[in-house]
Amino acid sequence: MSAYAEFVTEFRDQEALTVALCTVAMPHGLPRLTRDEVEIHPDGTNLVGYDTKEARLAHLVVRKRHLGHTLSDIGFRKEANGCFSVIVDDYDMNKGYGEPWLNAVKQQYARALVTRKAHALGYSIKDRQEADGSLSMVLAR
Q1: What is the predicted pLDDT for the residue at 67?
Q2: CB of 138 closer than 8 Å to CB of 124
Q3: CB of 39 closer than 8 Å to CB of 62
Q4: What is the SS3 assignment for the chain?
Q5: For residues 73 and 38, is the Cβ–Cβ distance under 8 A?
Q6: Which range is least confidently modeled, 32-41, 48-57, 59-68, 103-112?
Q7: Which of 9, 41, 94, 119 qualifies as a cystine partner to 45, CB 3.0-4.6 A?
Q8: Would you give the distance in Å from CA 45 to the centre of its chain?
Q9: Both ends of the chain: CA-CA distance in Å?
């Protein structure tokens, strides 16, 4: 049986999270999300899932129609402490939206925060591919 799983994250910045969701590579060769496909609901909205009896409220939502062969929407709920919790169906976690995908979102989130701060301070950013395949950000004035 399918059920929602919830995980507290360190995401606090809604704009950086939206940028991250639009820049992360999607599973199964799906196209990246557009800003219009990341719904923002200041008062929250219910996720649509496999089991409609298990409603979950989220403030940022990616509908299942944009996620390929998933059972449910993926959502991010703003908690009282300012952090977002991610809400994902446990079945969908095994279909590409589990820990590796969430780690990629975290990486893009951090990149979005650094990019915004660097630009505000007058820096330009260049990406540099490292020998081990990782990507580094080089800031310059």
Answers
A1: 94
A2: no
A3: yes
A4: CCCEEEEECCCCCHHHHHHHHHHCCCHHHCCCCCHHHEEEEEEEEECCCCCCCCCCEEEEEECHHHCCCCCCCEEEEECCCCCEEEEEEHHHHHHHHCHHHHHHHHHHHHHHHHHHHHHHCCCEEEEEECCCCCEEEEEEC
A5: no
A6: 48-57
A7: 41
A8: 17
A9: 54
- pTM higher than 0.85 for the full model? yes
Q: Which amino acid is at 68?
A: G
Are 127 and 135 spatial neighbours (Cβ–Cβ below 8 Å)? Answer: yes
Kindly list the strands in the beta sheet with 38-46, ordered across the sheet, starting from the edge strand earlier in the chain: 4-8, 84-89, 74-78, 57-62, 38-46
Place of tokens 């004035």: 141
Note the pLDDT tens digit of each residue in 43-92. 999 999 876 667 799 999 999 999 998 999 999 999 999 999 999 999 99
